[in-house]
């Protein structure tokens, strides 16, 4: 069996980009958990927590999206992973922004749309983070 080795050096993820990307998961997950807590207790403060956490997640996603756009412009045209990564981040940013607007309403008016959007945005952020970290590996076997 022949093994081909990829001689091109892989690009490591930039540390600041990694921090921006990794920060999206706990913020959006915290927003989702706060929404779940609100649906079970109806304490308005949980809705306020979710609002702030989602706003923070949107801010970090926006900066990570900007960085991903720069990486997309510089990316090798043969690979589709930077485009998928960018589109996942774009979807997380767009739906996160809509979720932030939903959470700006009265606490009773945020449910159930806020909970559903929080779940979708959290899954998108996890997928984007996973793809962002997994596509930037150091060279290995093909």
TrEMBL record:
Question: Which species does this protein come from?
Answer: Skermanella cutis
Keyword terms: Membrane, Transmembrane, Transmembrane helix
Q: Does the keyword Iron-sulfur apply?
A: no
Name all DUF2231 domain ranges: 14-133
Under what name is this protein listed?
DUF2231 domain-containing protein
Lineage, broadest ranks:
Bacteria, Pseudomonadati, Pseudomonadota, Alphaproteobacteria, Rhodospirillales
- Domain of life the protein comes from: Bacteria
Q: Where are the transmembrane segments?
A: 12-29, 49-70, 82-102, 114-133
């Amino acid at each position: 069996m022949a093994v081909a080795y990829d001689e091109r050096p892989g690009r490591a993820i930039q540390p600041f980009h990694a921090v921006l990307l990794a920060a999206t998961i706990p913020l959006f997950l915290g927003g989702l958990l706060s929404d779940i807590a609100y649906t079970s207790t109806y304490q308005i403060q949980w809705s306020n927590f979710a609002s702030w956490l989602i706003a923070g997640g949107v801010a970090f996603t926006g900066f990570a999206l900007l960085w991903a756009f720069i990486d997309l412009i510089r990316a090798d045209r043969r690979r589709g992973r930077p485009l998928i990564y960018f589109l996942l981040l774009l979807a997380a940013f767009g739906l996160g922004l809509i979720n932030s607007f939903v959470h700006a309403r009265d606490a009773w008016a945020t449910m159930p749309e806020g909970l559903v959007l929080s779940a979708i945005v959290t899954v998108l952020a996890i997928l984007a983070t996973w793809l962002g970290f997994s596509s930037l590996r150091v060279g290995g076997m093909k």
